[in-house]
Design brief:
The chain is about 15% helix and about 40% strand. The protein is built from five helices and 50 strands. Strands 7, 10, 13, 14, 15, 42, 43, 44, 46 and 47 form a ten-stranded antiparallel sheet that branches. The mean pLDDT is about 90. Strand 13 and strand 14 form a beta hairpin. Helix 1 runs antiparallel to helix 5.
């Protein structure tokens, strides 16, 4: 038995080393296989007889030692949907076993793998290179919370993102405090209706007084108007216009004087002074009164533009001085040889002047102020009437008066020139000849309407200065706008509006910050209307853009409208004895009794490994170690062959003993 036993033992050694060599060969062949787990070899001694006095050779058995729990190297790859588990655990996967209506059907058995090189197939499933379909928990469409009761193949089938109607607008801006009343500013924001159509909301600001603004919110295309609603609000009916005459018209008269020339003697000097300018002529032999007269006329007319006076022949011995401008006086004097006799006294012109005082609340629409003139002279139509109608943008009564003055001055048939000072409109007759005159008819003022608006008031105390302190919708007419009932410091400041673009009522909240705080709408010093934030939460319809997987395991579908949706969560499945799993094709595993139950857990929780996105786990085979084991197995195999050879020779010698 010793010789045969030794040979049998050696042969079992050959078998064991052959199996070890097979394990090594399998490891080396799969050294580049994603998610492959190597198999080591454990040798087990089998005993025949063994006692203190006797030991018979037994045999050896080679058993696989699976290294499923040994981590492979994690390598980053370009595939954004690739996954690796850093630590303990496997991906839950399934295999396709058929097809129905163009869609795959799946094997009811449960498989697991560490091969995470997943990519989307033509049907939107995540499949790895071995053909395994990744499974996960379905997520609630609203909250994204996973349903941990069921694992199902992950499929990206929601390729279209539904439009989301705008429900909230964020507005943070500074209205310049040092701008004058009636400053206007506008902001426009695109929003979305229930069908994903882009609409617009307009915010129109109008300053009416210190710390007081009017806001009009317009929604073009909506059958509901946030502010106004098609109704009008009666004005304060406090408009008045009163007139008083400042002075009447006085027609001017040209000043004229007659200058008589005395006896003419050669050597006599004849001097004439007009407006302080002296002129003189010395008579020579042969001069007559007429020739001296002509010399003086020539002297005056030569300087006429400077003197403001002209001269003409009055008689054979006289000349007449006449003012160039009617109503403009002049002074005159002469030597003893001349005599000046005033003929027509100067009368200065006076232009009719009437003033109109207007009062009333500014900022209304349709207030009308009318000025009437009757019995007009000077070549103008006998009656004229002018009316200015307010448009709501006037910041003061002075602006209203200026508007009426502009209308009067633009009328070529107006006999007067209009001007405004201190809110008083004044009409002065035009400087014509003759000067126009008129009688003032009774002026009129009629009431208009208040522009629908939301009242916005800013604080006037040190604590609240520049921050909103009150919102009111008392003047929105039939508009849909509402404001919060509680408006204490610290309460949210917002305006709720309702619009309708044909798909039913759409509620939109315009957030303006906080009452008494500078976290939204403010009124501080500035050179312009500064918008800091103007945004909304609606989106149009979107199409599938990309797929992303978070480290939490959430599978996220991204759309080209900026929206994202969590559709699944990838769990990590752990076992008490992962090395006892049963191996199947494609780096797959199946549960066994020895491995324990499968536990599907969130990544990085309760001992489950961490998900590494965009990476794969390489084989855990070490080539150098495998070659070392290969050399060892080869030497052991050779040694066992030597034992077989030696046993064979000894048996041959034993047989030869019988010859």
């Amino acid at each position: 038995m010793s010789l045969f036993g030794s040979m049998t033992t050696a042969i079992s050694g050959l078998t064991a080393q052959s199996r070890s060599l097979g394990h090594i060969s399998d490891n080396i062949a799969n050294s580049q296989t994603v998610g492959f787990k190597r198999t080591d070899t454990s040798f087990v001694n089998l005993i025949t007889t063994s006692s203190p006095r006797l030991h018979s050779p037994g045999s050896v058995a080679a058993r696989p030692d699976f290294r499923n729990s040994v981590q492979g190297t994690i390598e980053q790859v370009e595939n954004a949907n690739a996954l690796a588990v850093a630590g303990q655990g496997f991906f839950s996967v399934t295999l396709q076993n058929g097809e129905e209506n163009g869609q795959p059907t799946f094997d009811p058995r449960q498989f697991y793998t560490r091969a995470g090189d997943f990519a989307l197939d033509r049907n939107g499933y995540m499949v790895n290179s071995a053909g395994y379909f990744l499974k996960g928990w379905a997520s609630d469409p609203s909250t994204g919370a996973p349903d941990r009761t069921t694992l199902q193949p992950i499929r990206v089938s929601q390729l279209v993102s539904n439009p989301v109607a705008t429900g909230e607008i964020q507005l943070a801006a500074n209205l310049p405090a040092d701008f004058s009343s009636n400053s206007n500013f506008t902001s426009t924001l695109g929003i979305y209706d229930a069908l994903g159509n882009q609409r617009s909301i307009e915010f129109n600001w109008n300053k009416v007084a210190n710390n007081s603004w009017r806001l009009d919110v317009a929604a073009p295309g909506s059958t509901l108007d946030p502010v106004g609603g098609g109704s009008s609000i009666a004005g304060f009916n406090d408009q008045t216009i009163n007139t008083f005459n400042v002075q009447p018209t006085v027609q001017p008269v040209r000043q004229e004087d007659v200058v008589a020339i005395g006896a003419v003697t050669a050597g006599t000097t004849y001097s004439l002074t007009v407006n302080g300018t002296p002129m003189s002529y010395t008579a020579i032999t042969g001069d007559t009164q007429a020739s001296v007269r002509n010399q003086l006329i020539s002297l005056v007319n030569t300087l006429s533009s400077t003197l403001g006076v002209s001269a003409q022949v009055e008689s054979g011995t006289e000349l007449r001085l006449r003012a160039n401008v009617i109503g403009t006086p002049y002074t005159s004097g002469s030597s003893a040889s001349l005599t000046i006799t005033p003929d027509v006294a100067n009368v200065a012109p006076q232009y009719q002047t009437d003033s109109f005082i207007m009062t009333g609340t500014v900022g209304e629409v349709g207030d009308q102020f009318t000025v009437n003139l009757n019995t007009i002279t000077g070549g103008f139509p006998a009656t004229r009437s002018w009316t200015y109608s307010t448009n709501g943008s006037e910041s003061s009564i002075n602006a209203v008066a200026n508007g009426l003055a502009a209308i009067i001055n633009a009328d070529p048939d107006s006999p007067a020139v209009a001007s405004v000072s201190g809110g008083i409109l004044t009409l002065v007759a035009k400087g014509l000849n003759p000067i126009p005159t008129w009688a003032v008819g009774a002026p009129t003022a009629t009431n208009g309407t208040i522009p629908p608006h939301i009242g916005v008031t800013f604080g006037s105390t040190a604590a609240t200065s520049g921050t909103p302190t009150a919102l009111t919708v008392a003047n929105v007419g039939g508009g849909t706008a509402t404001v919060p009932a509680n408006q204490q410091v610290g309460d949210r400041a917002y305006i709720d509006i309702v619009v309708d673009y044909g798909q039913g009522q759409q509620n939109v909240r315009v957030q303006l910050g906080t009452f008494g705080q500078a976290d939204g709408l403010t009124q501080y010093a500035g050179s312009e209307y500064a918008v800091r934030t103007l945004s909304q939460n609606g989106v149009p319809q979107g199409s599938f853009s990309s797929l992303a997987i978070r480290e939490t395991g959430d599978v996220v579908v991204n759309y080209d409208n900026g929206q994202s949706r969590v559709i699944n969560r990838v769990p990590v499945v752990t076992f008490n004895a992962p090395d006892e799993l049963e191996r199947v094709d494609g780096q797959g595993f199946q549960r066994t009794i020895e491995s324990g139950e499968a536990r599907a857990l969130d990544p990085s929780s309760d001992g489950a490994g961490k998900l590494v996105v965009g990476s794969i786990e390489r084989s855990n085979v070490d080539i150098a170690s495998e070659f070392t084991k290969l050399i060892t197995a080869q030497r052991a195999y050779t040694a066992n062959t030597r034992v077989v050879t030696a046993s064979d020779e000894m048996l041959r010698d034993t047989l030869n003993m019988g010859r």
